[in-house]
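Quick one - inputs below.
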Amino acid sequence: MKQNNTPLLQVKDLRVEYLTAGDPFAAVQDVSFDILQNEVLGLAGESGCGKSTIAYALMRLHKPPALIRSGDIRFEGRSILTFDAERLRAWRWSEVSMVFQSAMNSLNPVMSILGQFSDMLKAHGKISRDEIIARTAEMLKMVGIPAERMHAYPHQLSGGMRQRVALALALTLRPKLIVMDEPTTALDVVVQREILQEVLRLREELGFSVLFITHDLALMAQISDRIGIMKGGEIVEIGTTEQIVTNPQQDYTRALWSAMPVLEQPKEAGANVR
Amino acid sequence: MLDDHVDILRLEKITKTFHIKPVFGPAKTVEALRNVNLSLKPGKALALVGESGSGKSTVGRMIVQHYEATSGRILFEGSDIADIADRASQMKYRQAVQMVFQDPFSSLNPAHTIRHHLQRALRLHQPDHSGDADVCRILDEVGLDPKTTPDKYPHELSGGQRQRVNFARALAVNARLIVADEPTSMLDVSIRKSVLALMQRLKAERGLSILYITHDIATAEYLAEDTAVMFRGQVVEQGPTSDVVGAPKHSYTQLLRAAVPDPRQRLLAGDSGFSSHAKDVREASAHLVTGMIEQAPGHFTAQQ
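Output:
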């Protein structure tokens, strides 16, 4: 994989706090990390460790009572914390996009798939109806959905298909970074594998970086180049996938590994599938 | 009373057809289950594995009488549950068979304390044992703090703790069979194993039988002696877990097995064969099962 060493995104000493009736609660405590060009960075940790808060803060989608207290987020060297509303709106989706945790439910139920593409494309520049249709068809085909399904409504698609639509939407404007917050949690393993395979294929084809957030370490190890382990709002360990899998340094990382059931025997019977 | 040869639960040629009449569009029928045979021995666990829509939850719901079978029989300790006529035996059946649902966030009443949830079950089925001491004993058994938990509301507990309360509720009525419908799939991976360990312990110590419904074949290996794999409403492979999960013979089970995330195996962009292979296997596995072939003692695969 071609990988450039200049970071696409730099997060430095990021601190996100939730205002409460008492003292503010720091969900993300002075976290720093980089995402390189064309890299898949995984962020793992149990519920409530702050990984989704980071995802939202990166796109400045966090809403009060959450606020970025200190630190900086730089995208290609520009600090996104200084963007005004208009610039932010243009920047989101065209340079950084997001596949949400419940991507299945992030589609508008009363709008056809074409309508959702049309909305997004129109918001990012002048485009004719024919072009919208052509673009939608192209993107749907790219994620393996027949183009004629663009007139379907979300409830007429299966969970896996909706997830693919969400992915297609996120890829349409060729962003440089896609934030995926537990994109496959609600799917069964076969569909999950198909979608991740798709993401990797598209990355090869289009070239983009991914911030992949999940609590499933095994899944993360399969697709990430580097993995960060989070606990209580801090990154306790960050390293290459190889190192996190074979030689974790922190007790917490080891505890996370031992907390999940993994198939014991070597896969003999399944080997012919690959 | 019960000798070991009698299955606690037995499904014989179960078929379930749903007739759907949508507001718009034509009515249609869905064959949710086609000729399903399953059996579960006392004190053992049977894992029912399959993707969403394979009919595995329908099986669970039929056992707790949410649905009636279109045809076939469900035998509990040897007697057909469709024959239960009077209220007393109905009550007895409901006491013996309890269900734990997938979503720990919606299966407890948010307006009541944990004490209320457990005492309600106790009063209904064991009026003599509904005191605070009994609530504490049951909470202790599922690994929750008996001192602080009774006065808590569901929102004060984590998902894993709430799932433990659901198991406590099933224990409170002295259930002998628990139908656990994806009890761990909405929980964090990091606490999944502890809930599985709880089920393992209940099975070993209390002799509970468990029908464990899941889409995660890795957890089946951890808990169940026997495994049945379902696809499109039919059982395609069943037998001892060590055979079915360890050395699957049916192509769908092999696919399921290969798709389980393995940290030692990197996914590669060029590996596009998986999707097309998955499609082929799905198509082949959807055909009507014409018979079962015995691969090894007790290990059957479907002939299609």
